[in-house]
């Protein structure tokens, strides 16, 4: 192989894509956008009295309950599982070619993108954490499947509650959430770009420290996604349908039960003093962490089972181009949200509560789906995916199709059945 050939690797053609993984990634990105709009609209920073004074307060109370039940933590769980699955396939592909240097370089570039996004655009960035945790994932490349499952569950469920008492003491002098949110609301409601940037940096630093358990959250889910990637659950769903069905029903049952516990545990502890012991409270904290994880897995497996049905595959496949441009869309969602709601943009702010939040979600998500189809009918990659890939290989990658009809044929087949070939990274 020539040096040039080694530096320019062709993208996976349509027949080698896993449409299920692409579509599921697009679905997950829609949920992540819904959650991220809580802070992008500035609603999250409002004190209770200000929320109660909004004209949409009655609707907001109902919508927030629905968000808590169906969306919060579940979709970032799904997104993280998919990211771990994709990284596992990239890592094993790199190992098969004789080294992990390119995989590590890819993560370091993502880390740089995350740093820029987090500190200069939007403080709620997840890419920086994904890059750091992805590098840690290299340490597990020789671990058995049992070790991946055990380590993933331990990190996701047990380690944060164990460390929490010590971390509360360590962070006792760190600003409380109410103080940090009040400062953020002032900064992002200011028309001064300097003030907004300063507030963003302050929030980015505060979030990295105060949300220390995010590393355990993400690494645990990455390891579970790594296990799923090794098993080929979403690459070859027809082969694993029995296991996928079992995972769906078990995780759905656990998730629903733990969600009920979330809303009833305070009353139960009052009526049953035994449940108010330290050991019982620790167990409850572990169980409450299991709920969103189980529901995230239920969403993934339920989506996969629907995708196996031809009629559902045609409908859900509409999301596949969105999933293939996930990095571009994730970053653009931050820019759009800031442009709409921050005072340095249009300054809409939180005045319309969750009604405005929901309308923004519909407008942004549907537009991004449409743009994904248009763009990938003409180009091989999304803009940021192309830049990431070119930097990874150290050479400008081909952007356009050699034949203009190739892109149109790719778009036409984007909803076809899941492929029996290698999936690429969730943000590739």
Description:
By secondary structure, the chain is an all-alpha fold. The chain has a domain at 31-72 and 308-428. The protein has 19 helices and no strands. It has helices at residues 3-7, 19-40, 48-52, 57-70, 74-96, 101-120, 127-137, 145-170, 177-188, 193-210, 214-231, 241-271, 278-307, 310-316, 320-324, 326-341, 353-376, 383-393, 404-412. The longest helix is centred in the middle third of the chain and has 31 residues, at 241-271. The two termini are 24 Å apart. The model is unreliable at 1-16 and 411-428 (pLDDT under 50).
E-strand count: 0
Residues in β-strands, percent: under 5%
Largest sheet: none
Number of helices: 19
Order of helices and strands: HHHHHHHHHHHHHHHHHHH
**Helix percent band:** over 70%
Termini, distance in Å?
24 Å
Shape annotation: globular
Protein structure class: mainly alpha
Mean pLDDT: 88
User: What's the gyration radius in Å?
Assistant: 22 Å
Uncertain regions spanning at least 5 consecutive residues: 1-16, 411-428
Keywords: Membrane, Transmembrane, Transmembrane helix
Protein name: DUF418 domain-containing protein
InterPro entries: Bact_Transport_Assoc, DUF418
Relevant terms:
DUF418 domain-containing protein; mainly alpha; Bact_Transport_Assoc; single chain; 428 residues; transmembrane; disordered C terminus; 0% strand; 19 helices; membrane; transmembrane helix
């Amino acid at each position: 192989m020539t040096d040039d050939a080694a530096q320019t690797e062709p993208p996976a053609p349509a027949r080698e894509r896993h449409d299920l993984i692409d579509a599921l990634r697009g679905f997950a990105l829609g949920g992540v956008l819904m959650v991220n709009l809580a802070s992008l609209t500035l609603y999250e920073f409002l004190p209770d009295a200000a929320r109660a004074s909004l004209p949409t307060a009655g609707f907001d109370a109902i919508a927030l309950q629905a968000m808590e039940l169906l969306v919060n933590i579940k979709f970032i769980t799904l997104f993280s599982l998919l990211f771990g699955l994709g990284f596992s396939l990239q890592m094993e592909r790199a190992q098969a070619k004789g080294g992990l240097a390119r995989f590590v370089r890819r993560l370091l570039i993502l880390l740089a993108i995350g740093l820029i996004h987090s500190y200069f655009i939007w403080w709620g960035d997840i890419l920086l954490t994904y890059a750091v945790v992805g590098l840690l994932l290299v340490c597990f490349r020789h671990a058995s499947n049992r070790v991946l499952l055990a380590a993933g569950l331990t990190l996701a469920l047990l380690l944060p509650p164990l460390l929490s008492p010590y971390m509360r003491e360590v962070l006792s002098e760190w600003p409380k959430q109410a103080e940090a949110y009040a400062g953020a609301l002032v900064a992002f409601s200011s028309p001064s770009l300097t003030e907004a940037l300063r507030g963003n940096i302050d929030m980015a630093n505060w979030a990295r420290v105060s949300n220390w358990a995010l590393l355990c959250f993400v690494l645990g889910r990455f390891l579970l996604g790594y296990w799923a990637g090794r098993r080929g659950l979403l690459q070859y769903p027809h082969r694993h349908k029995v296991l996928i069905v079992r995972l769906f029903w078990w995780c759905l049952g656990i998730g629903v039960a733990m969600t009920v516990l979330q809303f009833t545990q305070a009353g139960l502890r009052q009526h049953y003093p035994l449940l108010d012991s330290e050991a019982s409270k620790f167990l409850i904290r572990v169980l409450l962490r299991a709920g969103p994880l189980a529901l995230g897995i239920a969403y993934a497996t339920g989506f996969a089972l629907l995708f196996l049905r031809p009629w559902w595959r045609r409908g859900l496949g509409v999301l596949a181009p969105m999933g293939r441009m996930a990095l571009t869309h994730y970053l653009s969602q931050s820019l759009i949200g800031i442009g709409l709601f921050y005072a340095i943009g249009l300054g809409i702010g939180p005045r319309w509560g969750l009604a405005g939040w929901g309308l923004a979600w519909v407008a942004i998500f549907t537009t991004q789906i449409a743009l994904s189809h248009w763009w990938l009918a003409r180009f091989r990659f999304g803009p940021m995916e192309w830049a990431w890939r070119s930097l990874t290989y150290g050479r400008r990658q081909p952007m356009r199709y050699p034949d203009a009809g190739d892109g149109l044929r790719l778009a036409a087949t984007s909803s076809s059945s899941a492929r029996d070939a290698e999936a690429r990274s969730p943000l590739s």
